[in-house]
Every structure is written in C-alpha cells, then in structure tokens.
C-alpha cells in the first residue's frame, strides 16, 4: 500500500469552529492511513521464507553472509525507530490536557 500524505488535503476553515473539527478529521484519516501502512510491515511470510532459505546447505559465502546480515540489521534499525517514535507520539497525546482553553480562541 503506497501512501501519499500530500494527497490528503488540509481542511478548509469552518466559520463555526475555525476548522478545528475538519482538522481533527484530517488527522484521524492520516492516523488510520499510517496504521494501515504499519500493518504491512509485519509481512511474516517473507521472514518465514528467509528462515528456510538460510538453512539450505551451501547457501552462502562469508561475503554474502555479511551482506545479508547487514541488510537484516539495517531493516531492524528502521523498524525500531518508528516503534520508539510511536511510543513518544502516544505518550505525548495522552499527556495533552482534556480541558482545553475555549475553542476557537477569542
């Protein structure tokens, strides 16, 4: 699934709420799209196939092993980073007070 966040149009201001409700709906759409994309990262069949391949007799040379191992480490690093960022996003969202000032500001 290819996501293009630039195609999700920014909300147009609503005179009644200064665009706040539209902004929330736009953010909800983006969060749902991100969630759907993150699910695709858990493509288990690929990794299960990799486990079969690496156990084949004569599968690789030391140089090829280094290449494949390095790629695995790189993918792991890229997976760990969004996991940590998600934790920060969620904890920050939870910390926002639910008693906001009057909206829209006067």
Alpha-beta content class: mainly alpha
Measured as a percent range, the helix fraction is 55-70%
Low-confidence stretches: 5-14
Estimate the mean pLDDT confidence.
80
**H/E topology pattern:** HHH
Provide an overview of this structure:
Helices cover 61% and strands 0% of the residues. It has helices at 20-40, 44-53, 62-95. The protein is mostly helical and 106 residues long. It is built from three helices and no strands. The model is unreliable at 5-14 (pLDDT under 50). The longest helix is centred in the last third of the chain and has 34 residues, at 62-95. It has two domains: 1-40, no CATH class; 44-98, no CATH class.
Search tags:
elongated; 106 residues; mainly alpha; 2 domains
Structural topology:
Elements: H1 20-40, H2 44-53, H3 62-95
In short:
The chain has 106 residues and is an all-alpha fold. Helix content is 61%, strand content 0%. The protein has two domains: 1-40, no CATH class; 44-98, no CATH class.
